[in-house]
Amino acid sequence: MTTHTKPGFRPANPNFSSGPCAKRPGWSVEALKAAALGRSHRAKIGKTKLEQAIALTREILQVPADYRIGIVPASDTGAVEMALWSLLGERGVDMVAWESFGSGWVTDVVKQLKLADVRKIEAGYGRLPDLAKIDFDRDVVFTWNGTTSGVRVPNGDFIPADRRGLTICDATSAAFAQRLDFSKLDVVTFSWQKVLGGEGAHGMLILSPRAVERLESYKPAWPLPKIFRLTSGGKLIEGIFKGETINTPSMLCVEDYIDALHWAKSIGGLDALVARADANAAVLDGFVGKSSWLGHLAVEPATRSNTSVCLSFTDPDVAALDADGQAAFAKGLVSVLDKEGVAYDIGAYRDAPPGLRIWCGATVETSDLEALLPWLDWAFAAQKASLKAAA
Known about the structure:
Layout: H1 44-61, E1 68-73, H2 75-87, E2 93-97, H3 100-112, E3 118-122, E4 139-143, E5 145-146, E6 151-152, E7 167-170, E8 187-191, E9 202-207, H4 209-217, E10 231-232, E11 235-236, H5 251-266, H6 269-290, E12 294-296, E13 308-313, H7 316-319, H8 323-340, E14 356-359, H9 366-390
Parallel strand pairs: 2-3, 2-4, 4-7, 7-8
Antiparallel strand pairs: 1-9, 5-6, 8-9, 10-11, 12-13, 13-14
Helix pairs in contact: 1-5, 5-6, 6-9, 8-9
């Protein structure tokens, strides 16, 4: 139900961006006072903090003891590219994509790496492709959670335990909010600025023993820049996975990530993080279920993200507009909410269908989402009135 009456209360925190995402509840710059600023990351204090970040990541994400965890440059993008350029080419690869970032990895493998044996298994926004078509004797690259479509894989059951190829999973909007089945994943990547609300520019690379074996037994036909090199003399550079980063990290960002990890641990670890994201997504889902103008972009409920929730317009007048018209309508609606200071950065991703994208990850308070909902109705009514006036 839409209304022209401006709501009388606001979210305490209007940050609903899908990345960088809201800081943890109660965060302030005081949380960073112990940062090792002005010190070498190779000094004992710097290396200790990097080791702590890795150890806490393992504990909270429940990463198996024999998997390596490394802090790498260039956010999740850097971590994915390191995996693609270092591991692919030993056998054919199936590229699985259903949104912008997955499609970007397809482009990199086909047009940049120019691998000869590539199969594309794709679907449009709102749906998963047919996962039964994947051949796991080949290497497989996919996103766990489609950040720009709000479509995720519900679990890892589609991946066989006895696969011959490697599974390379971009999990940047899933880690810390969804349960990753590490037994089915050989490479997992994510960035700090998503579910835990950390800062950008740093990525995480998690390798299974099978991935390490590939790195040590296979040498790509192409040269690798220093920033991508994970081996030396045919052996894994173990230091990368013990806090000896390839290049200089920001110790301020490291401190912020450690703070977020401590917060996650303090509230109950992975179980609590997943529960918070689920509760947030449920609030938004309930609103959408009663809405006369909004629907989920993700068609199947089982595949709907609990973090990057993507919504499309179902109102007949708005849905009848062409893509440019719908995009303009969405931009106007988002702008109104921004100017009111009740919701920032909730427009759909630039390559996605016009609509809204509202982050429901663990650092968002459910009470803030509940406070946002009447504002969505109000902003829609205002935009709809403007649309009719212009007709």
